[in-house]
Amino acid sequence: MPRPAVSLVLPIYNEEPVIPELSKRLTELLARLDVETEVVFVNDGSRDRSFEMLRELAHSIPQYRVLSFSRNFGHQAAITAGVDYATGEAVVVMDADLQDPPEVVLEMIERWKEGFDVVYAKRRSRQGESFFKLITAKIFYRVFAAMVPIEVPLDTGDFRLMSRRVVRELRGLREAHRFVRGMVSWIGFKQTAVYYDRPARFAGETSYPLTKMIRFAIDGITSFSVTPLRLSTYIGFGMGLFGLAVAVWALVSKLVFHDTVQGWTAVVVLLSIVSAVQFLMIGIVGEYVGRVYEQVKQRPIYIVADTVNAELGDERNERGNR
Ligand code: UDP
Ligand code: MG
Questions:
Q1: Does domain 6-208+300-308 have CATH number 3.90.550.10?
Q2: Which helix (H) or strand (E) holds 169?
Q3: Domains of the chain by residue range
Q4: What is the rounded CA–CA span in Å between residue 91 and residue 136?
Q5: How far does residue 198's CA lie from ligand 2's centre (Å)?
Q6: How far is the CA of 100 from the centre of ligand 1 (A)?
């Protein structure tokens, strides 16, 4: 088969109720595209029948390719595998739950043909998310933008098109803790946005509960910023100055006014606060040390157990294992 112009990459984790509609919308999209296209599904260790359904579809639709992991490695690992295996001149990453409407891809391809290397989809509106998720996401991305020196587009997810040269660079970044949207911004090149209204999940449930969201947010910040490590220096300075002032005050009251400061309450309160801050700072250092540890182990980011319509050359296996 000739090398396709465009590869669509879709991570799949327990998407059984979505797959029939997804496939319908994708085949409609394939019919509307005037360029050769492949669809790479990455089954991220689904516990339902997602893989069986995809395998069946791939047997009748030649553009479909399926990679299936040996277990659940996570959304970002699934995206990474899809991008590693995609052969297109441009690669589009999108969620499988139809929150990233396939039709937007048409507009992305137009922009890519105009010469842009990255076309990310920016949410104009967002439906079907809890108020809590909306507000925490808004705060996180603004804090993130303020902390990291690279320019990250606000209100975007992983839904984006990348040109061949961006994909080549992305494949070279084998970080164990991955925040792909940040990595794409870091790579640079000519980037632009298309706008879309993000609908609610078509069916099924989100696989991003609060704990996973927090972990993902910490991955994002630690991948791109060491500012949290400097926090203890700043707090140390602040506390030192405060301590100095309190010492002067205590000495003056004792030596000048012969009035010993009553102490128990103050000591207990200060001790609790200071030890809490210390543990917190050790925790922050731990987050970075842990990531260094995971990185030096050099484990593969994912392990592929099965494929359909996709040949894994040795070179490709190595890429996952780098
Ligand atoms: N996903 C995945 N592995 C996981 C969790 C999610 O491949 O461990 C996929 C999922 O199938 C979907 C996409 O990542 O295509 C986004 O997940 P989800 O819709 O649950 O997240 P949300 O949109 O609620 O942030
Ligand atoms: Mg979703």
A1: yes
A2: helix 164-172
A3: 6-208+300-308, 227-297
A4: 29
A5: 10
A6: 11
